Amino acid sequence: MMGSKTISVDVIVIGAGPAGIMSAIACAEKGLSIAVLEKSELPRRKVCAGGLVKRAVNLIPKDISFPVEQQCHTIAMQTNDPEMAFTQKRDNLITMVCRNSFDYALIQHAKRLGVQIYDKTQVKVIKPSASSVHVHSNHGDIEGKYVVFAEGAMATLSNQFWKEDRLLLPALEADVYVDKQHAFQDQAMFDFGIVQGGYAWVFSKGDHLSVGLSMMRPQQSPNLQNCLDAYLEKLGFQDARITNRKGFIIPLSPRKQPMMKQRMLLVGDTAGLADPVTAEGLTHAIQSGLGAGNAITKHFKQPNQVANMYQQDVIEPILQELKVARLIAKVIYHPNSRWRNMIFKHYGHRLCRGMADLIEGKRDYTSSVKKHPFLHAIIKSL
Fold this sequence. Notes:
8-stranded mixed β-sheet, globular
């Protein structure tokens, strides 16, 4: 509890997800005082498939340990055409985690570094000034030199200072316990023939599967509950035990304004940094969280320099990748599936290898498009 007196810290982080906690860790490692304000009771359940791609794992400091449900060594990509099904196998492509235990492991590491964690804390008022940011909550007042907004996809507080111009699209997932799990053992499958303008997934997670659907383009969404039922039936899982069937929102385009203003920074889904091809958000959540913390610690007494470093060195490279990724997504999720099928027909195996390279962090979208003139030509034609 904060008490009746105003607490003063160097940095206030609003939200205890990976983006917020990684920014807190980066600041704490350099000796800054940090307070993390989380509205839910910790540990809290987070609706997420829990796929931690290899490039995201590589961003996490090696001294942070977290529980793993399963390693997926194979990615599979397919459409309704059985001749357009492709796989790529490599070690530890996707680390499957349970988000509540993964997030809580990061929180515990932050606490060991001296980060103060306040859960069940509802922020009521935020007042930035030239020298600090004052935050009023249900537990009292706290003042910091900087505030990091890490509210996730359902951000509200940051919308007081930034226009809400992210593209927010729905997704639905469930935990499925089936006898046929061995068919997906060690595998993460992406199915592009199930829902128009989106994709379905099946991820192996230890004693169960994560099965879900995500919309990837702005359009009138179909009934995802019905689509998931149909997909489970197609997989032969209609009689399986299903738990934790939940919907959630994914921000698939970034905010257009600079990601720092008035000593306040946006990170992760609050900034709208999810991948528009795969909807994967943990990589850029961790990357932006660490980047925000590093910018604050390097230029702590110069907020203009913090803003410049964060925007130019961290955000702009991410935005460039997202720009190219949105062009690729425009083809893959086009209402006319012939464009996607053309890509899969000509580039299926290479596309799957390229996706594995992206997951591992060996290449990016920009270099991938430049490498394939035919793909570039299709993108330009749409």
